[in-house]
Amino acid sequence: MKYLVNETVVFDTAEFTLCSEDSEPNCIKLSNSAGKVLEQLILHHGNGQVVTRDHFFEQVWTINGLQPSNGNLNQQVSLIRKALSNVGLGSSVIITVPKRGLKLSDKLRITALEAELSRPVDKVHLTDSFTGPSGSASGSLSLQQSTRLIPYIVMLLLAIFAAIIIYIYSYQNNNQPTYYFGKIDSCEVYTLRPVDDDERDDLTNDVRAVMKDNIDRCQPNSALLFSKTQAADKWVQDNINIRIFMAKCQKDRNGDLTRCLNYFLYNWTV
């Protein structure tokens, strides 16, 4: 259906366009929601009836499976007012009736047209932001949509950051440096840190003690990885916080340790 408004503007409910019929034709396309809101205002024009917000919610959003809101309705009305002003009707033709709803000005003259009476014109799209014939745009709605995207952008950046941290952590773990300690009995022993000379005897005794209960012998292509950590405080050191880790590993063709059988001992003493 097409409607002629004040004998100067044609509103097409099929394409939701507002087209001026003056010497310099101008056509603006409304978003679907804005077009349906304007259509409801036109359908109720002429009898003094006010269109309630609940009616808009039902006919524009709910009936189409969409979620209505006061904010969305206000945005669509703002777009319609800008479009009406751009085609020469003025933004004040939409009247807000407090606590009741919206209506078109009674001064508007609206008549129904046959579809073929309205000539085609070039269209300027008005979707989420309003663009007039001069190419100027109002970014209020676009800004709100951009604002709604901010949480998703932040989540994406956090996910990327977490992935980078995990990669770095994994890379560092997979490339843990080892230090050759020496050969104890039949086993080559490596540590996770350099061992001072005054620690070598104690560490050798610790390795032998752990091997005694867990490892019989080492094959030529195998090695042991040993680590002992303990608190610096003497009382804590002697009572609650001694951890020993040992792994019996195979050596690959590059000499790297792989396929390890791990042993963990907590508060263990020789």
Automatic annotation (TrEMBL):
One of the protein's GO biological processes: regulation of DNA-templated transcription
The organism's place on the tree of life at top rank: Bacteria
Protein name listed in UniProt: DNA-binding winged helix-turn-helix (WHTH) protein
Entry annotated with the keyword Transmembrane: yes
Residue spans crossing the bilayer: 149-169
A GO molecular-function descriptor: DNA binding
Pfam families per the UniProt record, alphabetical: Trans_reg_C
Residue ranges the UniProt entry marks as DNA-binding: 1-106
Record flagged with keyword Transmembrane: yes
Key words, A-Z: DNA-binding, Membrane, Transmembrane, Transmembrane helix
OmpR/PhoB-type domain: residues covered: 1-106
